Amino acid sequence: MKKTVLIKAPAKVNLYLKVLGRREDGYHEILSLMQMVGLYDFIALREEWSDVRLTIENGFSLPADRSNLVFRAAEALQKAAFQGEARSKGVSIRLTKNIPIAAGLGGGSSDAAATLIGLNRLWGLRWPRERLARLGATLGSDVPFFLSGPTAWASGRGDEIEPATANGPGWMVLVNPGIAVSTAWVYQAFSRKLGLTKSDREITINKFIAHRPSLREIYHRPHNDLEEVTLEAFPQLTQIKKKLLGLGGKGILMSGSGPTLFARFSEYSSAKQAAAAFEKKDSVKVWVARILRRSPV
What we know:
Keywords: ATP-binding, Isoprene biosynthesis, Kinase, Nucleotide-binding, Transferase. By secondary structure, this protein is α+β, with helices and mostly antiparallel strands. The protein contains ten helices and eleven strands. Strands 1, 2, 3, 4, 5, 6 and 8 form a seven-stranded mixed beta sheet that branches.
């Protein structure tokens, strides 16, 4: 019987996101507090002789080829681990999607990180997380966070990770309006709106690193630089924010480049009640997710 590894890939929200300027490599310098939440994709890895194969379940219109981060993660680790050997190990991957795509929840990056962790076990590589994170950073800016977590500051282009400790209420209501938003478009629109230039970078970074808000300040005054741009493009998000506030949500904010919005609730019952209010009347996708105190991977 072929060896199999099953692994969960959690979503994330950005409790705080500040864009500090343009980088020489074309990315944006950011400072963000990221938090894993209990909405999961599921990945099943089965050892094969040499090939990488990927199948996707749950009806998401995602490619199952080298344009998929999961496929690229498997091939990247395969190449790094077995370079120079006559025969490399392979894998058959089954990805069951629940995290919406292009939603600001980091689903693709989480799937890639979970694939690296799972293959590290499946193939018996025994790579430390730091080594996996270096490889993960070549795949996507958020991948190193998902190899750390569950709460961490992310800086640089998002790939420099400093663990943090979560506090506050234990449940999130996530509301997605069912639209996909391009991360690249949001950052470009934000740069045009504020006139960010590469020359802004050093002074802005130094200023905000020196005055990084405390976790208590963030829980009372959450902030996302990208929210205004996305809300202007999709006015329905403003109505969702107002509704979450009326339902008793705290710390209401857009995650990442959006369009998913989240609100904190201290009790599961109140979070479930708020989610039900959307499910009855609105054509949106809603989840109740626990704020994770430890990484599931």
